[in-house]
Amino acid sequence: MFHRTGKLSALFPVLLLIISASPAAFGATDATQVSLQEAANGSWRSDANKARDVYRHPVETLQFFGIRPDMTVIELSPGGGWYTEILAPYLAARGHLIEAASPKAEKFTAKLKGNPAVFGHITRVIPFAPPEQVNLGPSRSADMVLTFRNTHDWLIDSPDTLDAVFKAAFDVLKPGGILGIEEHRARPFEDAHVTAGALHRISEDYMISQAVKAGFRLADASEINANRNDPEDINVHRLPPDLAGPESEHAQMKAIGESDRMTLRFVKP
């Protein structure tokens, strides 16, 4: 989950360490092209992570976004690296993967360094701590920006923070570049500021309006990650995999499954 980092001046040594990460730093060797399915099936992914594929549909989701192995892709706020485990090997041979991660994401950085065979060809890791740090790189330098279940956190911080992230994504993308969003879905036309904070959800209509306001065009919407068993009025952390509520409701939450999610593809004109 995203949290504000406050002043960054004290973190410059950490930033320099992260920014300097390169294939050489991770001990990478020449990469072999793998398919999305081969990456998803990789032995480096834990059984627990693979078990979530039934809800998160990583191969189908990335195919829907239109990813290609020769793209320059920026992943925003990768968290524990669930999608990074698939993106890194897929893009290793011909593409570029840039991870925009919190300077405090020590576990994520350790994960990358701990498995150079999988993560050694990540192009770089850049500090990303909205709203203080949202620069994603040179203008018109990326083919795709991806964010998975993060936008509600930026909205919790402030509507201006979410706007700043969308602007940064728009600026870094080439014309025709893609912004791919997966997010916990709230009921239509609900107050996004309320649902983001209380439920960690955003309504699809609000998400689309904010991206369009930033200059993007909605290219397509998919129900790949929909879950019609989810009533959309409960905090997503009560659902699997977190099951943060009382034990007495765990069986009910497991029966629902993971949250209902929108999957949207936007294009920079």
Automatic annotation (TrEMBL):
Residues 1-27 form the signal peptide. SUPFAM superfamilies: S-adenosyl-L-methionine-dependent methyltransferases. CDD domains: AdoMet_MTases (cd02440). GO terms for biological process: methylation. It comes from the Bacteria. InterPro entries: S-AdoMet-dep_MeTrfase_Alr7345 (IPR016980), SAM-dependent_MTases_sf (IPR029063). Keywords: Methyltransferase, Signal, Transferase. GO terms for molecular function: methyltransferase activity. Gene3D superfamilies: Vaccinia Virus protein VP39. This is Methyltransferase domain-containing protein. It comes from Dyella soli.
